[in-house]
Amino acid sequence: MSHLHNGLNMVEINTLVLGKTIGGFLSLVYIFYFIQLSSWITRSVGDFMHLTLMPKTPITMFHIMFLSLACYASLKEITAIVRVNEFIAPLIFIMFWVTYLALVSEWSWERFMPSFRLDLFNTMKETTDILAIPFMDTAICLTMIFPFMSTSKMKPVFSGILFTATFISLMIFIMIGVIGITRASHLTYPLFTVFQELRIYAFIEHVEAIVSIAVLYTVFFKLCVVYYNIVLGICTLFNIRNKTMISIPLIWVISGFALSNHTSLIDFREWDKKYMFIYTMLYAVIIPILLLIVTKLKRLKKAG
């Protein structure tokens, strides 16, 4: 789609291909998805901080704090968000992996037992939610950012997604070798627990702060991008120039959604496991294919 409609984001493509009425409706659907996604991210970071770091602090305070920062970042445009990430992300990446690789000394093949009992089809069926978040939702978010990128820079973007998938797989592989499949699958935040129990040279303890920083920054960066997409989508659809009047009220809208979407972390994970992949397919695959078909038909009609 980005090649066929160079320089246009998803909201603009919807309007161009399907007209103001149907295209505008689809654009609203995408904006609503971004609001939902941002509320899920906000609730996730709130739950993480509430359960692991500050259990006595009301979860709403975390929501408002992160959303306020995301609001400020969205007003500074995507360029500022990306430049900050270019500086901070490598530092966090190095800090995280240098510490995480210290777990290799505790790693054992025995924790993978029993081996060779994998039902591949059922495993893929039960883990489709992993494709929805963080991969398919990332692709959806990029549809709003592609206009800011030249065609030559598309390859590094997808290389980065592949790079991320590889390191997530490596991280899980090491985690299973350290704490085992059974324990890892029953922990709410297994990565945090692994770092919490890690001891380096018998005197360096409480390195869970490192994973907390890494998780919070990663989630915050994603929240900033999604928040920016919401503001950009609304301003583009309704031709609004003053982004501040859209960005600030979104803090309260998303915060409200974050509290009301799910009753608890368990409720969200159950919903995520059952419906997230199917729901995300609508925005990541079905609607783009529809737009692609309509675009091709229109071009064939003009050529004929």
UniProtKB/TrEMBL annotation:
<comment type="similarity">
    <text>Belongs to the amino acid-polyamine-organocation (APC) superfamily. Spore germination protein (SGP) (TC 2.A.3.9) family.</text>
</comment>
<feature type="transmembrane region" description="Helical">
    <location>
        <begin position="21"/>
        <end position="41"/>
    </location>
</feature>
<feature type="transmembrane region" description="Helical">
    <location>
        <begin position="129"/>
        <end position="149"/>
    </location>
</feature>
<keyword id="KW-0309">Germination</keyword>
<dbReference type="Pfam" id="PF03845">
    <property type="entry name" value="Spore_permease"/>
</dbReference>
<dbReference type="GO" id="GO:0016020">
    <property type="term" value="C:membrane"/>
</dbReference>
<keyword id="KW-0813">Transport</keyword>
<keyword id="KW-0812">Transmembrane</keyword>
<feature type="transmembrane region" description="Helical">
    <location>
        <begin position="87"/>
        <end position="109"/>
    </location>
</feature>
<keyword id="KW-0472">Membrane</keyword>
<feature type="transmembrane region" description="Helical">
    <location>
        <begin position="53"/>
        <end position="75"/>
    </location>
</feature>
<feature type="transmembrane region" description="Helical">
    <location>
        <begin position="275"/>
        <end position="294"/>
    </location>
</feature>
<feature type="transmembrane region" description="Helical">
    <location>
        <begin position="209"/>
        <end position="232"/>
    </location>
</feature>
<dbReference type="InterPro" id="IPR004761">
    <property type="entry name" value="Spore_GerAB"/>
</dbReference>
<dbReference type="GO" id="GO:0009847">
    <property type="term" value="P:spore germination"/>
</dbReference>
<feature type="transmembrane region" description="Helical">
    <location>
        <begin position="244"/>
        <end position="263"/>
    </location>
</feature>
<keyword id="KW-1133">Transmembrane helix</keyword>
<protein>
    <submittedName>
        <fullName>Endospore germination permease</fullName>
    </submittedName>
</protein>
<feature type="transmembrane region" description="Helical">
    <location>
        <begin position="161"/>
        <end position="181"/>
    </location>
</feature>
